[in-house]
Task: structure prediction
Amino acid sequence: MSHHQTSPSPDESPRPQEPNTNPDAPRPPGPRSERGKRRSRDNARRHGLTARLPDGAAEAALMQEFADRWTEQLGAETEAEEALIRGSALAYARLERCRTVEEATLSQASRDAVDRWEKKQRHAARRLAQNLPRDPMNTALDLEGTSFGCEWLSRHWVQLDAKLEQGITWDRDDMNRALLLLGYHPQKPGPDADADLRAHWHLVRVCSGAPGDPLPGQPTHPVPARADLRARIARELDRLDALRDRRWLEHDADQAAAVARLALIDTSKDGQLRQRYRREAFSEMLRGINQLMRLRVERSKDQDRQWHQAHPHLSRKRLADTPSTRPGFPNLAPAPAAPPTPAADPARPDPSPPPNSRNEPPPTAPEPQNDRHNPLKSNNLHYTTPDASFPDPRRTEPTPSASPTISSRPRSAGSPPDPSPIRGDHGPQRP
Result:
């Protein structure tokens, strides 16, 4: 028995290779062409909003244009200033990238939200049109009350007109629909019905090939009847188009605008990330500009200090009563001359009264100024030494001359005890 290997047929797909789980196995070299290498660089890319390098030649040219323009406008004097200016310009380019992506994303989200809202309104019109067989008049009026209902009516009239344009005979469903779209029941009108309704019923019956009595003044052949019916449908389509535009401006346009504005508020996780990337780029741009301003302020202070050190006789002398100028430039302008004092006229009396005039009140002593740091200093308690010549009227204890103490009073052996209590006791002493 011979064994031979059979080759797979061209129609059969090759067997998928099993993944190599051996850690010591050599890894695939990856793409080797320049196109494959450029495409592999974007494998881990999601949106590119945080990329430091430009995304393509157009963005690289835009970043270079920003950097050159800012360097020319701000006028870098040192390499450090030029580096700060270019770094701020690159941060501004990333800010523009975030703004462009966010505007495009929000615009698409707004359009999608309006499309979803329109889809819901069309679905509501279709559900409302299901009531046409039960209540054709009120349902037709409700459909004409909105732009989407007028659109639904126009779309069904176009379907009926397409059959007439091709010369196809209407069936029973088309006859009923042609009457329901006008708000009429799909039945033969009576002899006292509206003339326009009777003419419409006659044309529909002739175009459908249904038997019936002829109507005076109306065609009985399908070809002219089809032409008259198409003219009626064209007039109805024009009326619905004008009504749809009016209903859109009256009701639906404001709702669509509100839906579009509401969609511009992106509270999703991706939207919050875009806002964070934009804030980071803006903060980095402001940081670079602030560092540039601080560097220039410090250099200006250093130059001012060097000028004062080089010109000590000009920087430390300043004439009196001269307005100050900006730092670093001494003010040596002469003080303005005082206006001349007019000479006194001996023939004209002095209007000011003498100091002892009877018409003027006597001068009062100036009030002492309160301490600015301690305005309540006058309310402080001051200790005064009591005067011994003026006894305190509130004192009730006897004076030492009127009531001598026990130690100073002589006492005999048989004399009774002193009834006055000893200071510090609360009652008479026992014998």
